[in-house]
Amino acid sequence: MTAIIQSQIESLLKDRIGWSASILGSKEIGRAVEQRVTAGDFPNLQTYLQQLQISTEELEALIELLIVPETWFFRDWEPFIFLERYVKSEWLPTQSHRILRVLSVPCSSGEEPYSIAMSLLKAGLTPNQFQIDAVDISNCSLDRARKAVYTPNSFRVNNLEFQQLYFTKLGNKYQLCDLVKNTVNFMHGNLVDPNFITGKNPYNVIWCRNVLIYFDDAAREKSIRNLNGLLKDQGLLFLGHAEKMQMLESTFVSVQHPFAFAYRKQDNHNGGLGLINGEKLLIKNQPLISTGEVSLSRLDRQNKSPLFSRKDSPTIARQNNPTANRETTQLKTIPLSVPATSTSKIANAQNSSQLPATDLDTARKLADGGQLSAATTMCENYLKQNFTSVAGYILMGEIHQAKGLDVQAEQSFQKAIYLEPNNYDALLHLTLLAENRGDTARAALLRQRIQRLQKS
Q: Among 251, 278, 336, 351, which residue's CB has the most CB atoms within a 10 Å radius?
């Protein structure tokens, strides 16, 4: 009976909020249910299930136990860089008399929508020239977002200029100023609900990052339908780098900015077809990393990033700061495919430059220019001399993916995992590759691994 009720609770969660037990993990759900049964003093699981089916409050309480709010200000660089450039080059010259409407969902504890607001201010907009609606299913997260008081964990970048500009230090915490705080309207909502934030005017920009990866196919379809209906023609949709495009009725064309993972909605009268590099293409169920000759590398952020320098790149930051992630300095497993050498030599190689860091940057720039063959050669030469470079193997995997070489891409990402078992980017890439080849079991295990990493 217990297993049957557990299955019914998992089905309820999937139907109501789109979370699949294969992604969340039955054990995680079971532990959360046990906590709620104990806290609510329910006599048995059957009674708890009945309450869960009729009580919105109880469902929300269970959701709070399952949510892992993992976010920080300006998480990933390129989306915010592209947003600033979009406002300066396209919005202000032609639409300055209008209000830019932005939706952030899920908004968690507010770091993302507030980062959007700071980017818009830096781009030259005044607070009365834009509106940001931020939605989340967690009331606890929304309460924290409205208070806008943050711990150092929310500031994970090296350049904290924005912190100095917009925050006041309160003991060991930071209070966001009213100038930014008042630009965001927080709301409770369920992305898979057919009536998700109805009655709102369409948005020019929607951010929906790092949530679709936790949904099953049906929930993703519902979510994309909702987002599609809320976005204006020619509007921008930002997704997470491990998420798939699953556009059901409209055409979305990838913007030409590497690692922004932004898509422009085409006019409805285009008949579902758009143009990419002069060719008609309907984007549906496609990975965000294209299999064509596309831009891959992160742009040089020196004098281009609104708030950061290139050293803040996640992989490069780990290279420059060995203490940022202890896994990078303690090799526990030596991959079979690296050149035969002693553990001491590997450790020494990690601490030496061997080749200038610009060699890897050059490989990125070659890939960014569509020169994937040259980028492959450069990256391979770099790895021959720096065979413990996690960043090098991740870039090699991304280049292989762009060339449609999924097997080689997976091997490269796996090498990165050998060297750094908890590397978030490599795990997400491996999850996407497993999903694309239909290996749902491995994809589920990888997602569970990512969730455990986020909770640690």
A: 251
